[in-house]
Amino acid sequence: MEKNGLYEQFAARVAAVNAECYRAADTKEMLALITAALEKRQAAKVAVFPSPLITEAGLPDALAQSGYEVFIDDLRRKIPQATVGITETQWGIAELGTMAQYAPEVDNRLCSTLVDTHIALLKHSAILPELDDALAAIASGGALPNYVGFITGPSRSSDIERVLTVGVHGPKELVIIVVDEGGR
Predict the structure, then answer these.
(1) Per-residue b or e along 86-95, where b marks 16 or more CB atoms closer than 10 Å to that residue's CB
(2) Could you tell me if residue 145 is inside a domain?
(3) pTM assigned to the model
(4) Residue pair 16/55 in contact by the 8 Å Cβ criterion
(5) SS3 sequence of 47-90
(6) pLDDT digits over 52-105, tens only?
(7) What CATH number is given to the structural domain containing 131?
(8) Residue 168 pLDDT exceeds 80
(9) Number of folded domains in the chain?
């Protein structure tokens, strides 16, 4: 499958698991999509785990200038105050609508799991066709990482009577923003 078709397949699978997926041409559009997601949820406090894409966009400063209280350090203590967490994920898996998050830092995992809404940023070039491709990408770094999380939609759990509950063991909402490097 050509690389352009991977986003469409990924986005369709993401929608099938009740998550939101948007595509941004650049970091400026990414910032606008993040702001719209925060406004929709009436978020005031946001936890952000710094990453190359987040740093390149100047996201913490941009959010602070827009009036949001932004937590970027001491997240173990501050994350309970935030309703939204923003992280960058390393790979997307088109066949599943799943993201793989290389997150050896506890603060990174907290930003994606202990909030009501997780906004995940993903570079378009990091969308891979199948799970095997993602596993190969993870293994290509030499030593296996000490933590990789696979994120597919909002947190879900069901009991023995098959009663499904969303948000019990993680975020109730997942918003994915796929960012094109250098514009479309």
Answers:
(1) bbbbbbbbbb
(2) yes
(3) 0.89
(4) no
(5) EECCCHHHHHHCHHHHHHHCCCEEECCCHHHHHHHCCEEEEECC
(6) 999 999 999 999 999 999 999 999 999 999 999 999 999 999 999 999 998 888
(7) 3.40.50.10420
(8) no
(9) 1
